[in-house]
Amino acid sequence: MSEVEDVDALILGSGQGGKQLAWHLGRSGKKVAVVERRWVGGSCPAVACLPSKNELWSAKVAHIVHNAKNFGTEIGSVTTNVAKVRQRKNDMVDREKVLHLSAYKASGAELIMGSGRFTAPKTIEVGLNDGGTRILRGNDVVINVGSHAAIPNVPGLLESRPLTHIEALELDYAPERLIILGGGYVGIEMAQTYRRFGSRVVIIEPGEQLMGREDADVASEMLGILVSEGIEVFLGATPIDVQGMSGDAVAVVIRSSSGDKRIEGSDLLVAVGRAPNTSGIGLNAAGVDVTDRGFIRVNESLQTTAPGVWAIGECAGSPQFTHVSVDDFRIVRENMAGGTRKTSDRLVPHVMFTDPPLARVGMDEGEAQRQGVPVRVARLPMSHVLRTNATDEVEGFMKILVGADDDRILGFSMIGAEAGEVMTTVQTAMLAELPYPKLRDAVIAHLTYAEGLGPLLGNVPGSA
Known about the structure:
Elements lengths: L3 E9 L3 H12 L4 E5 L6 H5 L1 H18 L15 H26 L2 E11 L2 E6 L4 E11 L3 E3 L15 H4 L8 E5 L3 H12 L3 E6 L10 H13 L3 E4 L2 E8 L3 E8 L2 E7 L1 E4 L3 E3 L6 H4 L22 E3 L10 H15 L12 E4 L5 E5 L2 H7 L3 E7 L4 H6 L5 E7 L5 E7 L3 H13 L4 H5 L12 H6 L6
Parallel strand pairs: 1-2, 1-5, 2-3, 5-15, 7-8, 7-13, 8-9
Antiparallel strand pairs: 3-4, 4-5, 6-14, 10-11, 11-12, 16-17, 17-20, 18-19, 19-20
């Protein structure tokens, strides 16, 4: 039986929030141990955020080259070598791993590669990846185990060995015809990526629109962009049976209001949502409760039901964005030191990195309606932003919500070039509680995309 090793802070999972907390506490002189099963730095730099954006950029380059004649450049036949795309991505992942290991060394926090599970309150037994066992006990314990792609209960689906985003990013070829289950952010990003690599792509979405959390006009605009690139989309279509094997020949039978339809393809990708990695880690022994969906139950300070045990990131039910996990780190860091920061105090943005991207911060029209918040709404087509006429990036629009009875900016949505950067300008104004005329009348550099904020805000209707 291994002896129990006591540490100041014990962190299960090295995701974005967990590693930041480990490095901070280590630099502060604390004895810190981080237990990670597989990916140094968590999934974001290894198999998720960075790798997917790396391949999305390769896909954008391919798209630009294929359309070079529209910009006056004549070239011959163009093909994409997906194996080289993957190698470029893997080279980046390798560099990230080196940077992470250097950060651990510099901070003094110990990274332990192995599978951990609670055996008692604040106590974790680690089966080391290279053999052996260690038992650690922390004065403070943080759970940061993340989530995984959910596989829906569809007959034949599991047996077809479908891809998730992890396997899709490891392909060294462009599938002949890629079927994607799910019309959310991940499914759409992967659809555009592989369509631009040369695959025929089909999206199957059970909902009546893509991206069910977005306003209908935003979803409709994105649908038009995807269809214009040759991506097939079936909405209101529920998969009821899967036959064959992904990577060879696979078929999905869908049911919609128009009846049943069989869709055939070469590869199948599942992108219908995510489930927390909370089973099999001994949460009962730790005294940590979970919700009906398996997420760790936390309060607004990210404290679990067990004293001295915190949870951050996707496993705690936080919005599934890396930047939220980073803010979870900041909340726990301050609250460990006696602070009172809460998750309810933050303004959370998100970006889908398609081309053009989608970005949103604050309320959209649907949320305002559900919450009974009266708003004024202004829109501006991206074709009215002068920069887009120079770059032929006229797809999309901006939309802003302003309080009906005051000049507060309540939300902003955009599909268009550099949407994330423009959104961040609006987010900054919201955090500063600037009334919208201040941003409307700001002197913004000519021929930037953000210049469109002036005419957009000029379209805000007068208050009642």
